[in-house]
Amino acid sequence: MSTTKKIAGAALAAALGVTTLSACGGGGDAKDKSAGASDAPKSKTVTLVSHDSFNATEAVLKEFEQQSGYTVKVLKSGDAGAALNQEILTKGSPRGDVFFGVDNTLLSRALDNGVFTPYQAKGLDTVKPEFVLDKQHRVTPVDSGDICVNYDKAYFADKKIAPPQTLDDLVKPEYKNLLVTENAATSSPGLGFLLASVGKYGEEGWKDYWSKLKANGVEVVDGWEQAYNERFSGSAGGKKAKGDRPLVVSYASSPPVEVLYGEPQPAEAPTGVATGTCFRQVEFAGLLKGAKNEEGGKALIDFLVSKKFQEDMPLQMFVNPVVKDAKLPELFTKHGVVVDKPENVAPEAIAKNREQWVKTWSSLVVK
């Protein structure tokens, strides 16, 4: 999984590997005061373990470092599912202090394996209540995004066909052999799209829906990068790769990304969003059990829900803030879409059925 995330834009722009985003300069007294009683060098560094798509403006991270006295180190570990699996394997002796990137599709796996220490973040009262899915505060909501089908505007204009808007539309004959999606067993958006069908059609109906999608020529690839930047005809990467699928499972924030990275930057996004196909993804951060710098980890989680960080996120990770008073940048409001009624599946239902749903989906669609 990737989260998202989020996620689509960050996958284009984020660097891989272990990165210290900025150095904490001068003021040893301030560092010691924030770091607590310990004078050990480790207490001055707080390590954030995340998926590859985590990104933040250097100045924003530096402001946190100057105010807290901690140096932030980011350990990027592949997609969110792979990163979470590593933390489960090293439970109690984590690679860092805070984990960011577990989402509502995989939340139960993290909680059931006990990788987090409960912590109620300062500023949690500013987070919209619908995003607080763990009442024990083992994780803190940080961002949200909608997994949706995106369409190539030029293709549908040239063919004089209305682009699809709902899940029902995708099984119609006029959209045969047009959709590419990610594997639900290996990809976050792929799993999110499967859950959208579960939310829409219920426990029995989703299987029939996917049988119809398969009959209508849906293509399944391993992950978002391949689907969006190779097979999708509407993205900049897909055009270069001569992708021939004008429908792709991506994110509601993908059109603003196409504008931001367009060369030259277009006045209008070349892609659109089928708003009746969406599943809402929520990403969380948690204090890792056994963290070497627990106080620094708590301070970092507080920062992740601060207005400063929340307003920085949209153009760094192309996700939406979860705090009530955070504003979206003009790029989002002008070129993005608002998904009023995304499909949702209760976390308890996901926890109980996820593995079986994926197994059944694989037997229906992949094998």
Structure summary:
By secondary structure, this protein is an alpha/beta fold. The chain is built from 15 helices and eleven strands.
What is the topology?
Blueprint: H1 8-13, E1 18-20, H2 28-35, E2 45-50, H3 58-68, E3 71-76, H4 80-89, E4 98-103, H5 107-112, E5 116-117, E6 140-152, H6 153-159, E7 179-182, H7 188-215, E8 219-221, H8 224-231, H9 236-240, E9 247-251, H10 254-260, E10 271-288, H11 294-304, H12 307-312, H13 314-317, E11 320-321, H14 330-335, H15 347-365
Helix pairs in contact: 7-15
Word description of this protein:
This protein is α/β, with parallel strands linked by helices and 367 residues long. The chain is 39% helix and 19% strand. It has 15 helices and 11 strands. Strands 1, 2, 3, 4, 5, 6, 7, 8, 9, 10 and 11 form an 11-stranded mixed sheet that branches. Helix 7 (188-215) packs across helix 15. The radius of gyration is 21 Å and the shape is globular.
Structure characteristics:
19% strand; 367 residues; alpha/beta; disordered N terminus; 39% helix
List low-pLDDT spans: 1-42
Overall number of strands: 11
Mean pLDDT: 88
Radius of gyration: 21 Å
Tally of alpha and pi helices = 15
